[in-house]
Design brief:
CATH superfamily: START domain
Mean pLDDT: 86
GO molecular function: oxidoreductase activity
Helix content: 10-25%
Number of helices: 6
Pfam families: VanA_C
Keywords: Oxidoreductase
Structural class: alpha+beta
CATH architecture: 2-Layer Sandwich
Protein name: Vanillate O-demethylase oxygenase-like C-terminal catalytic domain-containing protein
Number of strands: 17
Oligomer: single chain
Length: 280
C-alpha cells in the first residue's frame, strides 16, 4: 500500500501566521485533519477526534499520522545566530507531492521557467555535478553544482555563478544550500516542506534561513513565491501526474542525476505515495 511508509513521516501542515488565524482544516494523506492551538500548545485531530503528535519547528507545525513516527530531520542552520528565518506561506499545487520535490531539485529548467532570475539564455548548460544516496544519513545529496543566475537571491545586486548543494532530507522535504551574496563564507538555506494532501495534490510550504538584514520581510516572501508560482503551471501539466519510479517510464538526461538518485532512493524505501510504480 503506497500510504503505509508515508504515515510515519512528519509533514508541515501550518505556519505560525496560519495558526494565529484559528483552526485550519486540511487534508493529509487523504485524511482530513484540523490544526489548532498555539506554537506552545498544538492540537492536530481528525474528523473523529483522534489526536496526532505535533511539534513546532522551522516556523511550521509538523504532524505525523503513523503509530511510530521517524525522527524529524535536522536543519542545523535554523539555529545559527544571525540568520533570518522566513516562512513563505503556502502554494496549492495539483501534482504529486513527489513531483513537487523533484522539480525543486532540477536546475536545467532555470533559464526557461525562471528567466531573468534564476537563469537566462544562452547560459543553459548544466555542468557535470555529483549526486548520491548517502546511506549513513539516509538522504540524497547533490554537490559541486555551479550555475549562472541573473538574480540568485533578493539581496543579489548582480548576476554571477551560484554554487549549489541539494539535500533530500525526507521524501517530501528538499533543502537547497546556495551562495549567500552578502556573506560569501556562508550559504543561504532554502527549503520546501511538501504537505501531501492526496497522491495528486499537495500544499507546498517554502522556508528560508538567510543572512539578509536589508530586504523587507514581504519582499523576501514575494521573491520566493514568485519563483514557485512560475513552477506551478509546469508541475500541473506534467504527465503522468504521479512520479514514475521505473527508469524506463521517462528518459533521463545528464542533467537529471539528482532526480535519478531521488527516484532510486524512494523505490528502495518503499516510499510510493504519489509515485507510479511498475506494479501500478
Amino acid at each position: 500500500m503506497s500510504r503505509a511508509y508515508a504515515l510515519n513521516d512528519w509533514y508541515a501542515v501550518a505556519d505560525a501566521q496560519v495558526l494565529a488565524r484559528g483552526p485550519r482544516r486540511t487534508m493529509l494523506l487523504d485524511q482530513e485533519v484540523t490544526v489548532s492551538g498555539t506554537t506552545d500548545d498544538l492540537r492536530v485531530i481528525d474528523a473523529e477526534g483522534s489526536a496526532y503528535p505535533a511539534q513546532f519547528r522551522y516556523g511550521h507545525v509538523w504532524t505525523s499520522l503513523g503509530d511510530a513516527p521517524r525522527p524529524l530531520f535536522d536543519i542545523p542552520e535554523a539555529d545559527e545566530p544571525g540568520r533570518r528565518l522566513v516562512p513563505c506561506g503556502v502554494v496549492r499545487v495539483k501534482c504529486s507531492p513527489l513531483r513537487a520535490v523533484e522539480n525543486f531539485l532540477d536546475i536545467a529548467h532555470f533559464p526557461f521557467v525562471h528567466t531573468g532570475i534564476l537563469g537566462s539564455e544562452p547560459h543553459t548548460e548544466v555542468a557535470p555535478y555529483k549526486a548520491e544516496i548517502r546511506d549513513d544519513v539516509d538522504e540524497v545529496w547533490a554537490t559541486k553544482i555551479s550555475f549562472y543566475q541573473p538574480q540568485a537571491a533578493k539581496s543579489a545586486e548582480a548576476g554571477g555563478d551560484t554554487q549549489y548543494l541539494y539535500r533530500v532530507a525526507a521524501p517530501t522535504t528538499a533543502v537547497l544550500y546556495k551562495t549567500c551574496p552578502p556573506k560569501p563564507e556562508a550559504m543561504d538555506v532554502i527549503a520546501i516542506f511538501v504537505q501531501p494532501r492526496t497522491e495528486t495534490e499537495c500544499d507546498v510550504w517554502p522556508w528560508m534561513a538567510l543572512y539578509d538584514d536589508v530586504s523587507a520581510f514581504a519582499g523576501l516572501v514575494q521573491f520566493q513565491q514568485e519563483i514557485f508560482l512560475q513552477d506551478r503551471s509546469i508541475l500541473e501539466n506534467q504527465r503522468p501526474v504521479k512520479l514514475p519510479l521505473d527508469p524506463k517510464m521517462e528518459i533521463p538526461t545528464r542533467a537529471d542525476l539528482t532526480s535519478i538518485a531521488y527516484r532510486r532512493w524512494l523505490k528502495s524505501k518503499g516510499a510510493f505515495y504519489g509515485a507510479l510504480t511498475e506494479d501500478a
